[in-house]
Amino acid sequence: AVRAEGPAAGLRQQHLYKSRYVCVMRRGHPLATRQLTLEDYCAAEHLLVSFSGRPHGLMDQALAAFGRKRRIVLTVNQFFTAGRVVMQSDLLTVLPERFVAATGYADHLVTRELPFDMDPVSVQMLWPLLLDAMPAQRWLREHVVRAAAHDDDA
Prior knowledge:
The chain is an alpha+beta fold and about 150 residues long. Helix content is about 25%, strand content about 25%. The chain is built from four helices and seven strands; from the N terminus they run E-E-H-E-H-E-H-E-E-E-H. The protein has helices at about 40-45, 60-65, 80-85, 135-154; strands spanning about 10-20, 20-25, 45-50, 70-75, 95, 110, 120-130. Strand 3 (about 45-50), helix 2 and strand 4 form a beta-alpha-beta unit. The longest helix has 19 residues, at about 135-154. It starts with 10 loop residues before the first strand and ends with a helix.
């Protein structure tokens, strides 16, 4: 996580929205037609989206609290890639619900509630303090904020 607080941070931030995590799978997946249980979730093979390259994530920390693990068989660093792979396989992945559309394959995917509680993810916009007063940058940030707010209405 990037911290953008205080005058020495060199960054500004603005909250855009919160999104809950959902389990994502292809239409036609054996688990797509029923409520997802913890047993089914842990027994399935998973794709992890990891920008850092670490082979574990927040879901694994949550599962550890139950003394459970999931089987991650593939790690990718993009939501688009995750959507494409999950759409063509029996892998499960977990994404913020509002990111499912960013995969480009939302029409081919199914989302299910996670079988355990997770706090929602808070999506922030960050920018360098040096660009804070630039009119073009301000214009872009205003449009990003409006687009994120518009999605809240949908």
